[in-house]
Write a structure and sequence with these properties.
Blueprint lengths: L1 H28 L2 H8 L6 H21 L6 H26 L2 H8 L6 H21 L3
Length: 138
């Protein structure tokens, strides 16, 4: 019976490594880390950025799987939520920018003025949606 549990552990670990490796490869292949380093004028520390992305993924997976109790309380959860929201928002906006969705859409519908308001509205909508989702979570 122990060999079934060992097999499940090995398959789970390998599957998790494959999925995490694919996500990290996507982030780096799309140039998100390089774009963030370029925008902040800190290209010399790009290896630190890549290590931070990998460490964040590994630590996040460990916390998600093993559900370690983190003694940070509500304040710590709020701070984590802010950083997680910043990451997800930056990820979504970087993907949008990389595949040029907004400029292509603006050209196709002949949208010339107010594009800044559309982008701000998208960001505010994502923020409001996540706040509603987490506040009214059942």
């Amino acid at each position: 019976m122990w060999w079934k549990e060992l097999l499940m552990a090995v398959v789970g670990l390998c599957s998790g490594l494959a999925v995490a490796g694919g996500l990290f490869a996507l982030i780096i292949a799309l140039g998100l880390v390089a774009e963030f380093a370029d925008q902040t004028h800190t290209a010399r520390q790009i290896l630190w950025y890549e290590d931070a992305v990998a460490a964040g993924g590994i630590i996040g997976n460990l916390i998600s799987i093993y559900q370690f109790p983190l003694p940070f309380g509500d304040v710590g959860a709020g701070i984590f939520g802010i950083f997680a929201g910043i990451f997800v928002g930056a990820w979504a906006m970087a993907l949008t920018e990389i595949i040029n969705i907004i400029p292509i859409f603006a050209r196709r519908v002949n949208f010339r003025r107010g594009l800044e308001l559309v982008i701000i509205s998208m960001a505010l909508g994502r923020t409001a949606g996540s706040l509603i989702y987490y506040y009214f979570r059942f």
